[in-house]
Amino acid sequence: MRYAYALATAVLLSGTAVTLAVQQPAGAQTAQNEPGAIQPAAAPRPGAPMSFADMVAKLQPAVVNISTTQRVPVSSNPFAGTPFEMFGPQQAPGGRQATRPAESLGSGFIISSDGYIVTNNHVISAGAQGAVVESIKVTLPDNREFTAKLIGRDAQSDLAVLKIEGTSLPFVKLGDSRSARVGDWVVAIGNPFGLGGSVTAGIISAVHRVTGQGGAYDRFIQTDASINRGNSGGPMFDLSGNVIGINSQILSPTGGNVGIGFAIPTEEARPIIETLMKGDSVTRGYLGIAMQDVTDDIADALGVPKGRGTLVARVEPGQAAEKAGLRQGDVIVKVGDRDVTRDQTLSYLIANVKPGTRVPLSVVRDGKTMSVTATIGTRPPEEQLAAGNFDPSDENSAPANPDTAAASIGVQVTPLTPQIARTLGLDATAKGVVIVQVDPQSDAGQKGLTRGDVIVSVNRAPVASGAEIATAIKAAKAAGRNQILLFVQRRALGRFVAIDIGS
Questions:
Q1: Which residue stretches belong to region Disordered (predicted)?
Q2: Contact, 98 vs 74, CB < 8 A?
């Protein structure tokens, strides 16, 4: 399981589960939650629940346990985690990387009689950097086990679709979360802490809850039904047996349930699931700006209403915002006819606009309101965006998967993108790789190389990846040399540095 944090409070990703109405051939079995299958008398009466037993007995067969087997890189270095730790994975005999087995557990549910399953992306993703998922196993409540195939995944919405080979499997369909109201009873089914088939109940605490994570899907159903680790991918049912949400996160100072859980509404999940089932990727709108919240003091300084708008902190060259004439310091207060508020953020509105669409934006500039029209672009992959969020002074802004190919000389690097180049005070056309971490005990560290330095060339040949550095090192060793010559740039200054490769 992975965690996100908000205001020093752990937000445990705990699951997404969705069901889709899939056309069935004549004579096929019906969904477990088909209209009429669950009689009103079997569900709690409004205001005074009697028992959920009959409803749960009907729905539980479609909720599954999902587990993965993984290989995780390990190190036997006694100084691991200290300033004396050396870079690079431990090598097993024969030059193979040393690994250990690992497992993860979560939930999901079947959405068609032929075995399509929805779960969270993080349930079937590697749980550690460098880990590889080797297999995904699905276990039904009747203890039947299947090896699942990954059909599609979408990291930003945290949704994934799996497929198992079977026929006449129990399944459920998606309901309409738009009819959900605060105070409605809900039931969650999943596998918390690996305890299969656990059922919890509660009420809807809030709808359209914004957690502050940003993006196209920061809008959840909040519930006080107990959600814990392992509930990831489990469905949230209303009292008619409809899936109205996908249990995905909890807010907790300890990692355990404290009565604040979040589920992805089916109205948000349905189009993503349908796209993934077709084998397509999800596209989202992109404006090309760095966004900053308009705090009360910023609102007062700029003369804009409190609680309205998003401040443009940076405009990316060549993107939709620049082409539309947006400037740093503008406050975008409306997208089309929809206000930008704390509950309806700019990132949510833009990401849900189809790329290529022309959208009018209402902007406050120097105290005056004006209108511009932007042709919304396509949001780049999350890995590319993460690579652009590089702060040389902030160790936590390192890319999610730094390149360790050059670890033999004590550095980890990442490709130099135009976004990172501008962050480092370089021209957007600059080439090379950026150092994201340096072993202080290495020759590179002893000679002053530091995080944020750009390696432009090795032995006077341009490099664009850690692999190219490793190739240059190998060639130098083959030629009998003990040093390689790096050209390193730090802002406007550049210098040659010879690095020892002899050891």
A1: 377-403
A2: yes
Question: Encoding tokens for residue 183?
Answer: 């105070």
Please answer whether residues 371 and 381 qualify as being in contact, where contact means their C-beta atoms are separated by less than 8 angstroms: no
Q: Which of 204, 110, 118, 194 is nearest to 154 (CA)?
A: 118
Could you say which architecture CATH assigns to the domain 286-378? Roll (2.30)
Strands 116-119 and 132-139: unpaired
* CA atoms of 451 and 445, how far apart (whole Å): 10
Cβ proximity of 161 and 151 under 8 Å:
yes
Model pLDDT for residues 7-55, shown as the tens digit of each residue: 333 344 444 333 333 344 445 678 888 887 776 545 545 554 578 888 9
CA-nearest of 244, 239, 112 to 178 is 244
C-alpha distances (whole Å) from 477 to each of 263, 413, 483 are: 55, 21, 8
Which whole number is the average pLDDT over 238-249?
91
Residue pLDDT, tens place only, 349-372: 998 899 999 999 999 998 899 999
Say which CATH superfamily domain 383-500 falls into.
PDZ domain (2.30.42.10)
CA terminus-to-terminus distance, the chain: 39
In this structure, what token pair is assigned to residue 486?
């790096």
Tokens of 64: 């599954």
Distance of alpha carbon 471 from alpha carbon 276, whole angstroms: 38
Please tell me whether residue 9 adopts helix, strand or coil conformation.
strand
One-letter amino acid for residue 138 of the chain = V
The domains spanning 286-378 and 383-500 adopt the same CATH topology:
yes
Q: Which two tokens stand for residue 123?
A: 């349930």
pTM, whole model, 2 decimals? 0.69
Segment (H or E) for 374: strand 368-375
Active-site residue set: 122, 158, 232
Per-residue DSSP letter, 86 = P
Closest of 376, 181, 363 to residue 286, by C-alpha: 376
Of all residues in the chain, the percent with pLDDT exceeding 70 is 80
Q: Where are the chain's structural domains?
A: 1-21+51-70+98-282, 286-378, 383-500
Q: For CA atoms 105, 111, 115, 116, give the dihedral sign.
A: negative
**Could you tell me if 456 and 435 are in contact, meaning their C-beta atoms sit under 8 angstroms apart?**
no
